[in-house]
Amino acid sequence: MTSDQDPASFDHLVVLMLENRSFDSLCGYLYENDEPRHFIPDTDQVFRGVAGRDDLVNDDGADPPRSYPVRKAPWERLEDMYTPYPNPGEEYHPNINRQIYRSDEVSGNLDELPTTDLMQGFVEDYIRVVEGSKRWDGKIEGTPEVIQQVMDCFPPKATPVLSTLARSFAISDAWFSSVPSATWPNRSFTHSATSRGRVENKPASEWAMQHGQLTIFERLHESLGDKAFRIYGEESHLASLTWLLHGPIRHRRFNEHFKNIDEFEQDCANGTLPAYSFIEPRMLTNPNDMHPPFWLNPHVASSILAGEEFVKQIYDAVRSGKRWDRTLLLITFDEHGGLYDHVVPPTNATPPDDPPTAGHEGFRFDRFGLRVPTVFVSPYIEEGTIVRADGTVPFDHTSIIKTLCERWGVEGLTQRDRAAPSFASVLNRPASEPRTDTPEIVSRPYERMPEPKAHQSPPGHLAHQLVELSSAVMGEAVPFVKTAGDAIKHLIRHSKSWESEPPE
């Protein structure tokens, strides 16, 4: 389908990035009983999900092997929406190598990568993750029911907010994370199109102090000034991964660009959104980032239902805002988090550096990470749209940079984002015919825990990472934090210290 839209068809891009879910795990059954209405481009009109497939199976590598097929995840109970537990492996080595290639060690040379048994190692990797989890949770047992979780995929009924938005507007079934690794590298690529050779969430000192590369935030600010961007968070910027990972935006001149979610809702209502809004979920107490839990403690575990409520809150704010007709909302996930996906990541990624240089673990940044769900919402998107890149290079997180650069006529950052495709083609309705309907969505019941009690809970893994990064930024030793409340106090102290006298 074609339209008269162009890259200047929106004035506000809003991006909500959640945590650690693969495409199949959340959207594999999205079109089980019917078909999408529109494909962009229209050359391959087959939705790339798991419904109707009986060939998507992993085995445990035992003798004889036990098979674990893709199946619909249980979803009716609240506790079902915390799965999988334990949290699957998400590191480049050994986890994701094993998941994709069924081998911990793979060559950095594309010509030497395995070509058989691809996407067959999720169960094997999860078995050893479960075994390792016994060190902090002695009740864990690697039963078939526990192992099956990594292959389970939720039906649309489990996620009515995300599923309704995906079906009512558009979803890409070919959007890949930028790096086959964890959160920090992928979030770094999202805004700077590089991770400076790093493929792991460590060491914190390098991430905090050696990432002074230019980001899309400064690039937009050079052109648009104070109307360029804002970063909105469920917690203030004291807990912003974006703030902690990118040194340039820690400059005090950008302090006013960090706002809370209440201010996002006000900006939507008043029609005062910036050109680019990046939204971060809650990660310290009552998390709503959809990350699989590290502890089965309701005060620190992130239920998918909490994330659903957050997505609905953002959608409702955007669709009821004064600039709804000029706003494009994108909902995505930083990485697959070790959860099953059946599509092999492409190996035609452009390395960010010129000439290309190998990074940690010998990785050359010439192949993408796994697929993640990415949903687009706009009155200029037809219902039931599937969007993919037009060409051989797929969408990845640097497509956000590319689209922003095209829309506002600013220069790219690295070779990766310059080679990335824009997603402006998702706007497939004529500019003169915006939709007048916006679906009302009812999220499933979820009750947030009282904050005082939540503050007394043990800190989650992401809370520990925030403390590590913050300590590295301030040049301090990482303290022992016993509770989530301790982590918050630590971050508040650093935030106040930074605002009064930023380190040199």
What portion of residues belong to β-strands? 5-15%
Q: What is the terminal-to-terminal distance? A: 53 Å
> Share of helix among residues?
25-40%
* CATH architecture descriptor name: 3-Layer(aba) Sandwich
The quaternary structure here is single chain
Count of strand segments: 15
How many helices in DSSP terms?
16
Based on CA atoms alone, the radius of gyration comes out at 21 Å
Tell me the CATH superfamily: Alkaline Phosphatase, subunit A
What is the CATH class name? Alpha Beta
| Largest beta-sheet characterization | 9 strands, mixed
User: Low-confidence parts, pLDDT < 50 over ≥5 residues?
Assistant: none
- Rough shape? globular
Q: What's the pLDDT, averaged over the residues?
A: 92
CATH fold-type name: Alkaline Phosphatase, subunit A
**Category from helices, strands and their pairing:** alpha/beta
Q: What's this entry about, in short?
A:
The protein has 504 residues and is α/β, with parallel strands linked by helices. The chain has helices at 23-27, 92-101, 122-133, 144-148, 160-168, 183-192, 204-209, 216-224, 241-245, 261-270, 304-319, 398-408, 415-419, 451-455, 461-474, 484-500; strands at 12-18, 38-40, 57-59, 67-69, 71-72, 152-153, 170-172, 175-176, 229-233, 258-260, 276-280, 327-333, 374-377, 385-387, 395-396.
